[in-house]
Amino acid sequence: MKYLLLKHYRGGPAHFVDYGSMDQWTPEEVDAHIQYMRDFAARLEETGEYVGEQALAPEGTFVRYDGEGRPPVTDGPFAETKDLIAGWMIIDVESWDRAVELAGELSAAPGPRGEPIHEWLEVRPFLTEPPTVTE
Amino acid sequence: MTGDAVNESLLRELVPAVIGILVRRGADFASAEDAVQEALIRALDTWPGDPPRDPKAWLVAAAWRRFLDAARAEASRRGRELTVEAEPPAGPAPATDDTLRLYFLCAHPTLPQSSAVALTLRAVGGLTTRQIATAHLVPEATMAQRISRAKRRIAGLPLDQPGDLGTVLRVLYLVFNEGYGGDVDLAAEAIRLTRQLVALTDEPEVAGLLALMLLHHARRASRTGPGGRLVPLAEQDRSRWDTGLIAEGVTILQGALARDRLGEYQAQAAIAALHADARSACETDWVQIVEWYDELLLLTGSPVVRLNRAVAVGEADGPQAGLAALAGVDPGLPRYAAVTAYLHERAGDLQRAAELYAEAARAATSVPERDHLTREAARVRQLPHR
């Protein structure tokens, strides 16, 4: 079963701990955090549970169709969007419980003074292909 | 061929020549290229167990057979006679510049850059569609489509017309900058293709591009630190630079500059050579580097050059002069905030520098760059305020 672990710049429940933005940490704390993320992905590759990950730039724009022969209408970027996705990791695991366990581990990435940042991550199940045998 | 391992690089070097042979026998470029790609995949599959005595003859025969099969299938589909002779006519003596024509065709100015890159890697570089797809992180079917659309777009263009060398060089430099991806080292591949192009042409700019690539490639090992961290030029361990590549790059550059037909790649290579020449960052000849940036600016008028020039001016004449040199540079440019942050740090305005590094991190276009700039912001915030 595939799950999306979504990381948000903003949005979701209130911070459990306010760890501030990363550029307020020490360089060593930044390094340790990045290393933890890399190790986590490498470990999941070894267990055969890693599918992929992608980071997103913070700025985006909304676009919509505006009728035949007219250019699309754009709106934004919005500095104060309530919910802003920072990136994701896709995992392929045996169960929902395993997905939650892994999200919990990822959320324990170290921040200032090496303390876990307790970051909220959103876990979203993939909708699957219909089963081959239906009757 | 000996041993079990297929000599993949030899195989790949044969690809453009074999395409050329098929075209001279009467095949159109698109079909010839498809047939050679299929023969290549077959060779990668069967050569390890059954190596041919004459690899090139094997590849020509296999590709020609595939071309005929496809042509027959197409002819019967259309209910037409096959116009190409089943037995290949004795063609004219191989034209040595078949390969050069392929460069021009694959990087034709009417093609979008991503298509030109893909087509060049396949038809000139002899990579498989799968390898090209993996290197660009797209599905193989997508890459196959991109390549066949590109071939449709250039269908009917004669192979024997002089092409646009500038586009070819841009495409090769783009491949070089794509770096690693999958099991193919695109930077090394770009160097191989540019080396081959140097042998086929007599243009100082081609040599300039090769020199530029070699000088950058020489520093590759020192550009990333533990955990894939980006290491800026000033902090790189210069003992890890490849002196052999640097010497080769400098020699090629000197040969090109002696021709007295300066171009943007030669000027960029000259800047890279001056960096390579400095035993430590503080021994860098920034005054000469600024002069080369002036030349480069005259040649290109590029805003990115103007931005990089400001860094060099900052080193040569001090950070205030560097900041002054930023006047008139578009702040919307990628790396503008990073450059300003650096100059403010050198000028002692640490508060401003930290804010700008953080802003630059938000505007970064790659993860390593973003992480590096975040770390720079963090580092500057730790410095004691003067």
Automatic annotation (TrEMBL), chain A:
InterPro entries, sorted: Dimeric_a/b-barrel, YCII
Ranges where the YCII-related domain occurs: 1-106
A Pfam family per the record: YCII
Origin superkingdom: Bacteria
Family: Belongs to the YciI family.
Protein name: YCII-related domain-containing protein
Upper lineage: Bacteria, Bacillati, Actinomycetota, Actinomycetes, Streptosporangiales
